Amino acid sequence: MMRFAGKLLVLLVVVLVCSSPLVRANQQLDDLFDEEFDDDDEELLRRVEQKHVDQELEREQQLAHAQSAYNMAAEYDPYNQQQEQEQEEQEEEQGAPNRAPRLTDPCRGVRCGAGRICSVNHDENKAECICIPECPIEHDPRRKVCTNLNETWDSACEVHRQRCLCNTNDPLCRGESVRHVHIDYYGYCRQMVECSESDLADFPRRMRDWLFNVMHDLASRNELPEPYLELEHEAETNMTKRWTNAAIWKWCDLDGHPHDNTVSRHELFPIRAPLMALEHCISPFLESCDPNGDHRISLQEWGKCLGLEEDDLTARCAEITKTDESERNDIEAAV
Ligand SMILES: *[C@@H]1O[C@H](CO)[C@@H](O)[C@H](O)[C@H]1NC(C)=O
Ligand SMILES: *[C@@H]1O[C@H](CO)[C@@H](O)[C@H](O)[C@H]1NC(C)=O
């Protein structure tokens, strides 16, 4: 999601400049997100964030290749390992001549959770997931994160690392208060601008537009996962399906952790975290998508809060989500 955040930023800034902001802190969704975490919540959030980290790292890797400057990032980049592995396999297939036999790297194919990297325990020649020793230094203010403690941290990596340290009772853990630290939104912590009633009333329309634009943009850059291409094509060619298909795409996309036909408050992270700092109505809007307050958003609720006709929304995630189930077959080594 962060990959198109840049584009999205431009879009939103344009939209925002045309609307009039008002000032008053919004608490509702913050309260919703600040509730006590149980272990399941923690696990879920970690998965959602991990997906982000993966996407972030993929982007970072591209940068690193161009600048060969992101050594640390590349070291804990699972995609990098995968590529290396593929390369090695290719070489093996070609029977690369004159090559000394190699020991298999126990970290091959091992993916650790956010804030962790795989490390080889040489005594036992075994893979272990350990807390990232050091996060890459971030200079870009957009990579700063505001935590649920309303503290600006250097990067998402720092948040994940600190949580790992605390959960493994490492002396580097900064204290009990950061055990459940999580990313609230990207960028520096700031005073949130109030969402006026008229802004909120107009928000579903802007959100629909935005969803379609993002989907369209992803498709035009060949970054939309294959199962969604038909939805996108339909949306493009049939005006009556434009908003509904975009809504279905985003909902199915959000309902990924796990695929349970409902979008939980944690699954909203990919939409909420990048938009919070830019879009003063995102919290009250998402709140309005959960009118019965059960912290879950059904496809019907999603359609309704986007101002769509309920009849148009049929859950098409079933066939869509089956295909990317394989994503999750990665080996996860326990700490
Ligand atoms: C969070 O921190 C920012 C920046 O220090 C501050 O302006 C804002 O009022 C704080 N928000 C809350 C809810 O305390
Ligand atoms: C566009 O979508 C509507 C609603 O599903 C459908 O009734 C209509 O036949 C479609 N039009 C075209 C040209 O496919």
From TrEMBL:
Q: What is its main location?
A: secreted
Gene Ontology MF, one? collagen binding
Example GO CC term: the record gives: extracellular space
- Domain of life from the UniProt record: Eukaryota
Q: Name one Pfam family in it.
A: SPARC_Ca_bdg
Q: Which UniProt keywords apply?
A: Calcium, Disulfide bond, Glycoprotein, Secreted, Signal
Q: Where in the cell is it found?
A: Secreted
What residues does the SPARC/Testican calcium-binding domain cover? 193-305
From start to end residue, where is composition biased (Acidic residues)? 85-94
SUPFAM superfamilies (alphabetical): EF-hand (SSF47473)
User: Segment Disordered: which positions?
Assistant: 79-102
Q: Please state the span of the N-terminal signal peptide per the UniProt entry.
A: 1-25
- Put simply, this protein is called Bm-40
Lineage of origin? Eukaryota, Metazoa, Ecdysozoa, Arthropoda, Hexapoda
